[in-house]
Design goal:
Helices cover 0% and strands 50% of the residues. It contains no helices and 11 strands.
Length: 126
Amino acid sequence: QVQLVESGGGLVQAGGSLRLSCTAASGRAFSAYKMGWFRQAPGKEREFVAVISRSGRNRDYADSVTGRFTIDRDNAKNTMYLQMNSLKPEDTAIYYCAADETPPTMATKPAQYEYWGQGTQVTVSS
């Protein structure tokens, strides 16, 4: 069991930046979990944004955010990050962090994650 709490969302103008954080509380080491970011805009399905492996050595991104977003983790601080640069209005959504202990490591589907945070709103104005 792991509890996840996101923070760092807010309102930003197009072209701006935000840094999201996801802090975990668990009886197991944070490094036991693969971690991912997803987002959900109104009226749309939850979609993959980025994933990072347990050690942090491997990362994968959705095509829509590649080159603009960076996922990272600090296992000593039980925290994952999403640095979002060059934000666009279409990035507006609730952003969720997710964790899971089981394979596959580089999972991109919501069903491949067991634990979820409550979400943080990101709004990008044009």
